[in-house]
Amino acid sequence: MQALPRGAVRLLPGPFLDAQSTALEHLLSLDPHRLLAPLRCWTPTGTPGRTWR
Fold this sequence. Notes:
By secondary structure, this protein is mainly alpha-helical. The chain is built from two helices and no strands.
């Protein structure tokens, strides 16, 4: 058995494509600064993260 390249596989219209579209829409609606805030609190980069509580 051999793996296919990612570009060789496409979802056809149906429940799986709908779920993928819904997940993508949700992820793109999230604020990246808010998602990265916990990481910024733990890294020693000197970039302070705001807490979002």
